[in-house]
Design a protein that fits this description.
By secondary structure, the protein is mainly alpha-helical. It has 2 domains: 11-73; 117-193 and 200-213. It is built from 12 helices and 3 strands.
């Protein structure tokens, strides 16, 4: 599938999230979002070739670090995935109702570039190979095919895996078997790490016992 040349921009959300940025920081943030729309992820070295270090340090909090030590913007990835789904639905309408061609086509990205392939086992392998505890492959594949059926949900599971791999529980060695994680991966799409001090010793022990299932 070709790269979509655009993404939805929610200006109110953007204004709120960047309200404390200087104009220089704001410009650098927009510039990085455009590069990430094309590349998905950038290493810090690549980022520093595009914006000065002091500005990068001040806006770094708007980006997450992947397992490959590259930065991405979670909201951007999700909105781009939504656009793919929207484009697919409009293309289907064009096929069903040819008279819509003339007024719909200018608002669509290239049709050939957005003809989405069906999610296959090969897509599962891309995610599976990144998972650190690959036990229960057959069951994991079953869960994957049942829950990941579109390009949007495929990007969601990639985001979920990045959140999981960067979590404190994984860093501390509490890793679920693959068959378990692929059955509840949706819990990690919007996951935010709780403050470390908020967990009691008993809670941490309970969490570890659950991770071993």
């Amino acid at each position: 599938m070709g790269k979509d040349p655009a993404f939805l921009f929610y200006f109110r959300d953007f204004l709120v999230s960047t309200s404390f940025m200087t104009f220089e920081e704001l410009g650098a943030h927009i510039k990085l979002l455009c590069f990430l729309a094309d590349k998905n992820e950038l290493s810090e070295t690549e980022i520093l070739k595009k914006i000065p270090l002091p500005i990068w340090e001040s806006i770094r909090g708007h980006y997450r670090l992947s397992k490959e030590n590259k930065y991405y913007n979670e909201r951007l990835q999700i909105e781009m995935a939504k656009r793919v789904e929207f484009t697919k639905s409009r293309l289907k309408n064009l096929h069903k109702e040819p008279h819509l061609d003339t007024h719909m086509e200018p608002h669509m990205v290239n049709g050939n570039a957005n003809t989405d392939a069906t999610i296959k086992e090969s897509d599962f392998i891309k995610v599976w190979e990144q998972y650190p505890k690959r036990l229960g492959r057959k069951s994991a594949l079953k869960h994957f095919l049942a829950s990941v059926k579109t390009q949007y949900t495929f990007i969601q599971i990639e985001v979920a895996l990045k959140n999981y791999l960067s979590s404190d529980r994984v860093k501390n060695g509490y890793i679920q078997n693959g068959s378990t994680w692929f059955n509840n991966w949706q819990d990690w799409v919007d996951y935010k790490e709780e403050p470390k001090d908020s967990l009691t010793k008993a809670q941490r022990e309970t969490m570890k016992s659950l991770e071993d299932l």
